[in-house]
Design a protein that fits this description.
alpha/beta; Rossmann fold; six-stranded mixed sheet; four-stranded antiparallel sheet; 11 helices; 38% helix; 24% strand
Amino acid sequence: MRLVADGLSHGFDGVAVLDGVSLAVEPGEVLAVVGPSGTGKTTLLRLLALFSPPDAGTVATDAGDAWALSADERLAVRRRIGLVSQHRDLFSASVARNVSYGLHVRRSWGERVRASASRALGRDRVPDRVSDALASVGLADKADRNASSLSAGEAQRVGVARALAFDPDALLFDEPTSNLDPRNTAVIEGAVREARDRGIAVALATHDMHQAERVSDRTAVLLDGECIEYGPTERVFDSPGDERARKFIDGELVY
């Protein structure tokens, strides 16, 4: 799936957050979205995930303008997009149950009833896709652990596995390694690369310039709600065309 933002503008309570942002998240690529806190990175990802319509501009997929589709058609598209936030919102249940949640909500009601009956009879088993997703983030041995017993880094890895388990066409990460140690950061970055290699369209919002250089194919620089630089990561970091982008990347422009 290709996600295309064209002239996106959005705000809250009369305050503009995004102003005319245009970019694309391509299949089999990682797009890093960098910029200071409060510049609209999270808002951009939520619009790309079709959580709400933009005030102006469009979000398009292979099916066309998402907000021109019927509600059922848009829901079908939205169910092919995963969003991993920086907030580790897990249920007080096993790691496997948490990871399987995305699969569960995408089932028909009949399939959900049958799955619930299987659990009640003790016949429930961990789906292969859940096991594979846990393995991709190094948590295969913790499937039966209660998620409440995990460290912050492990909990974030569960969130990544939950998004991977339903085999999305597009995957959006919002500061997924914020405040994590190097080991957990490396595992999550590995999962980002694995998703890209599987042909998934990946967008990664981060304030870590080194992370953007390590994992992304293209980079967009947001500043004051505008996309001031956009292109191949090497070019954006080595020779940005906008002086503000250069100063931000070099640490001269501090917010």
